[in-house]
Amino acid sequence: MTTLQEFPEEILLEIFKLFQLPFDVEQTLLPSKTQRPLENLLSIALCSKKFFRVVRPILYRTIYLRNIAERHYFIRSLCEHPGLGHYVRHLQMNEVPVTCKNVHPSAKVQKSFRVLKRGLELPLGIKQTISRGLANGLVSAEIALVLLLVPNLQELGLQLPVDSVAISKIFGMATQGTSSTQNQPVSYSDEAAAATRLFSTGHFSKLRVVRLLSSFQNFGNVNVPMLPRVLQLPNLQALYYRDLQWMGDPLQNISKVYKLTHLNLNVTEMRIKDLTHLISQSPQLRALTLTFNVGKHGESSMSRKVLQDLGNLLRKDALPHLEDLHISGNFRGVAGQDYHIGSLRGLKNLKSLRVSPVDLVGKRVHKIKKDSVHPMVSHDGLPLMDLHAALPTSLEYISFKVIRLRSSHETQYALHQVVNLMTKESRSSLCHLRVDSEMDGHIGWNRTRGRTWSLEGAGIGFPKISSLLKRAVGQDWLVKVNSIVDA
Questions:
Q1: Which of 320, 329, 327 is nearest to 350 (CA)?
Q2: What percent of the chain has pLDDT above 70?
Q3: Model's pTM, two decimal places?
Q4: Which residue from 139, 144, 366, 452 has the highest number of Cβ atoms inside 10 Å of its Cβ?
């Protein structure tokens, strides 16, 4: 009878991979989610030398560094055994202190780095930057050292300190000379040989997903040329840039980012020309999420003109593969102007849309004529935009974001358009419609393979829903809606 110890290592590796840690670059997993997989892997590793040899790459494949102590221990481990860093594929570093310095610089980390410098070849510039930073207790130097030791990363989640100069240098060195070869993936030909030189031409060549988060929640200002360097990673597919200001990061000279398919920007301030240029240089985008927050004093930083520029760009077929579009935020109005996105009919592959009616149609939504039900017109007698004509028939999911569900003109318009879309036979692909409010919950309808719509759970009572619908679409249309809705 064959025992587990006699199995080939290749088969054991596939078995033990079932115990590896989960990883989600968009959120921090609680310790309870990672404790059990770690305990299982450590128990397996202690069974025999063979098991330890097989399990070790799995143990280092996914790394969560949630505090200073874990970061220091990880740095010391990799400085003593640099080859282990080549196993790391998923890395997330959180709980970075708001200040750019540690209270007490780690003497053990400095000692480990001195040993590392003597035994391995390092670029002179980064060597000096990290050495001085560690001596002064700079958090950015510690993070830069971690990034230097993990060249084969595939996914990176990183909470940035205020001073990120050393981190920016790592990305700058990794992307030197890659702009002309972005379509050609680079890989290590021999990982064992690469372990003797920490920085080679393949550093970060496998990095596909990057999430950058500010240490200052919502008010971060990483004033270094970080983004242009990150965007030049040869195989970057997804970028999440959250709670940061777009200051000091001009993108006017950035070349095409051919492989970027997912872009999620959550910023408090950003140059409109940088945004439009970045989108125009990312022709393969399939998912675009733009969230603009208020500044630290509560004011809106972004002008509503960004909506018009974005709409014009999308209508020029800049993103022919776009499938998911989400736009939200607080915008600064412009006197005498009603900037909005406008028609998106030309986005033939768009499947999911989440947007505010005001951002899509304009402020005229707030001026609906009281005695008008169908068609809906503004106070000046002009009809509001018919979203059936303005949105592509490829849509499967639509969510209209409103401030309040209770008797607002914006909600009235949104509900009217939802009902209008539900009754169109040409929209056979559409299966989910919602009107969302952070204050009052939501109203939603689902449709499966059949043609019957069903009302889903909502944050307000069903009598209120009936009242809102009657106000939005009128009694005659409500009878028509009830004939196709399974309440």
A1: 320
A2: 71
A3: 0.82
A4: 139
